[in-house]
Design a protein that fits this description.
heterodimer; A: alpha/beta; six-stranded mixed sheet; 37% helix; B: 421 residues; mainly alpha; three-stranded antiparallel sheet; extended
């Protein structure tokens, strides 16, 4: 399978503190890769390297090789603004803009000039909501505030908002940690659908979720990549003792 | 047992604290009440002014030109003062001697000739008929009628002699002097004579000045805040800037006046006593306050909103202006209003740039000489005439009303911009 991201010897410092140390990891296209590990292990930091969201953190420095489709995303020619249109992101806490549902979805296409007319913009919004499996729930209240929706719906709004820009990759940083089990199930089902069109990288605290949704899993511990491989293998027959201990709940 | 005692003690402590809180609120309210009531008691009488009705006939042939309009040259030469004085003295046929006449004349405002002239210039068809015109009485008469004239001191030390007091009493009983609504106070600018002075010039001057202040300080402060919050990398320089912004907010206002004097007036050669420069000086003073408030309210917007925008590929500027600034707007406005309210009541910096001048015209532009409300109050409170004292109190009431209005605007704008989460 084709690799979407290729990373080699990635090191990230926050000031003088090393957050992730020498990580090399390839992420396959049109597939779901999950990053697991205890809190503070650097999985979110690694995720935020992939769309250069770390740039916004003061004192954060990234070194190593990070390629997206064989292009170095940290080279001077790459504009992070442009990169983030290709690599969308969904955050841990649902963070819709305090605007209407329509405006939330339409914002990305608007700033990137994806729609030439109002009708086209309308189409993009409806299509994105449909792909996020939300259209039936919000069809009648597109112009109501997005913050009035339930937590799970808000998170799907955020997913629809990311889809609307038509990215190649969607990064998800613990997208279900603030949601109840039913909303989580809905989103997991959605992930399965979306993986046909997008490359998805998901950070999760729930090992069950990683086992359910992803085809590949990477286990991080204390800023290092301990093990990376087929999800099934990681969860049934891990090579490293640390992985074994983590998935059985002995460290965490 | 011990536990019960401790619990009781804790409850007692809470009650005591509550009591202290209520007491301090009561004291604050009492002080506010005392302040407002003393100003009101001193000032409300200035809403009225003593007026004297005069029957005047002015012959049109002496003043009108062939088109039936008032000829400026003729109006200038016409002796309005003597016309008014003569009309006034017809009520006192017994007064014959020169010195008595002089004393009598002092009961009417020395500006009444001018006022009558203005009346006739505006009402061309009033010529040749007997017209009753209400002219202002002098400020001493006004104060005497309001009971603010101390008659217990010896005659030589008083501004009104016994004879004059008798005349006033007679006029009052015959209805020849009356307290009426003080129109001048609301329609004219400053004057040497209390009875002709008004607040309009100062109000317009203050409004023009504030307009310049808002126009300069709001955009500058918002831009500076956004730069400091979003773009500036933390470094020695930004630390230095930050410390100095905080320092600047604490600098005594007169220093800003001195800066304005040496920079705007001396170096750039801008005109003195004008609202434009006043607004610039007050903007200097307001900017640090607004920057501090703006940065605080920008920081209060959850960072997740900024992340969401950046994650969609918005630039920092788009994230700031499309999402964060609109959400921070209520806070920014509150900060701005606080700054403006501070600037509105500020007189010291304006003194330095010459806005303390005695100006008898209502300012018509940003570059016409003007004064401001607090400066006007300062000037009136400083005057010798008793009648200016009540006028300064009324002007203070006006300033308070002005401030309340500014705050009201802030509340309305805040309501408008506030988003429900």
């Amino acid at each position: 399978m084709k690799n979407k991201f290729e990373t080699e010897n990635v090191v990230v410092h926050y000031g003088t503190k090393i957050a992730i140390d020498n990580i090399s990891l390839n992420i396959e296209a049109n597939n779901i890769t999950s990053l697991i590990g205890p809190s503070g292990c650097g999985k979110s930091t690694f995720l935020r390297c992939l769309n250069r969201m770390n740039d916004t953190i003061d004192g954060c420095s990234v070194s190593g090789k990070l390629l997206l489709d064989n292009e170095d995303i940290y080279s001077d020619e790459i504009d992070p603004v442009d990169l983030r249109a290709k690599v969308g992101m969904v955050f841990q806490k649902p963070n819709p803009f305090p605007k209407s549902i329509f405006e939330n979805i339409a914002y990305g296409p608007k700033i990137h000039g994806l729609a030439k007319s109002k009708a086209e913009l309308n189409d993009i919004v409806l299509q994105s909501l449909e792909r996020a499996g939300l259209i039936d729930e919000v069809r009648d209240r597109l112009h109501d505030s997005a913050t009035g929706l339930s937590g799970g719906q808000q998170q799907r709004i955020c997913i629809a908002r990311a889809i609307a820009v038509n990215p190649e990759v969607i990064l998800m940083d613990e997208p279900c940690s603030a949601l109840d089990p039913i909303a989580t199930a809905v989103i997991e089902e959605l992930l399965d659908q979306l993986s046909k069109d997008f490359t998805i990288v998901i950070v999760t605290h729930s090992m069950a979720q990683a086992a359910r949704v992803s085809t590949k899993t990477a286990f991080f511990h204390l800023g290092k990549l301990v093990e990376f491989g087929e999800t099934q293998k990681i969860f049934t027959n891990p090579e490293e003792e640390k992985t074994q201990n983590y998935i059985t709940g002995r460290i965490g | 047992m011990n536990k019960d005692k401790r619990l009781k003690k804790r409850h007692a402590r809470e009650k005591r604290l509550k009591f202290y809180g209520i007491t301090s609120i009561c004291i604050a309210l009492m002080m506010l009440f005392t302040l407002l009531s003393s100003i009101t008691l001193n000032g409300y009488t200035a809403m009225q002014q003593a007026y004297i009705p005069l029957k005047i006939i002015v012959p049109g042939e002496k003043l009108l030109n062939s088109d039936g309009e008032v000829d400026a040259q003729k109006a200038l030469l016409f002796n309005w003062d003597s016309k008014v004085k003569k009309a006034f003295r017809t009520n006192f046929p017994e007064v014959k001697s020169r010195s008595d006449k002089k004393e009598l004349n002092r009961l009417i405002s020395s500006n009444s000739g001018y006022d009558v002239k203005q009346f006739f210039i505006k009402n061309v068809d009033a010529f040749d008929n007997e017209r009753v015109i209400w002219i202002t009485a002098s400020d001493d008469v006004d104060q005497y009628l309001k009971g603010r004239f101390n008659t217990n001191i010896s005659e030589e030390d008083r501004r009104l002699t016994n004879k004059q007091l008798n005349w006033i009493d007679r006029m009052r009983s015959e209805g020849l002097v009356k307290l009426k609504f003080n129109k001048n106070f609301f329609t004219s600018a400053d004057s040497r004579e209390p009875e002709s002075s008004g607040i309009l010039g100062a109000v317009v001057g203050s409004a023009l000045t504030m307009f310049v202040t808002v126009l300069l300080s709001l955009p500058l402060a918002v831009m500076a805040s956004i730069y400091l919050e979003y773009f500036a990398k933390p470094s020695r320089l930004t630390d230095f800037i930050e410390v100095n912004i905080n320092n600047l907010a604490a600098v005594p206002s007169i220093v800003f006046g001195l800066l304005g004097l040496s920079l705007f007036l001396s170096f750039f050669g801008l005109p003195r006593s004008v609202p434009l420069v006043g607004g610039m000086v007050l903007a200097l003073m307001t900017i640090p306050t607004v920057i501090i408030a703006t940065r605080a309210s920008i920081r209060a917007v959850p960072p997740s909103i900024k992340d969401a925008a950046l994650g969609l590929g918005a630039s920092k500027m788009q994230a700031a202006f499309h999402h964060v600034v609109p959400l921070a707007m209520p806070g920014i406005l509150t900060g701005t209003i606080i700054g403006i309210a501070q600037a509105l009541g500020e007189s010291a910096p304006l003194l330095m740039i010459g806005m303390v001048a005695f100006i008898i015209d209502v300012p018509s532009s940003f570059t016409s000489p003007a004064t401001a409300l607090p400066v006007q109050i300062f000037m009136w409170a400083d005057s010798a005439e008793r009648a200016f004292y009540e006028r300064s109190s009324l002007a203070i009431m006006f300033l308070v009303v002005f401030l309340i209005m500014v705050n009201l605007v802030a509340v309305i704008l805040r309501r408008k911009f506030e988003k429900k989460w």
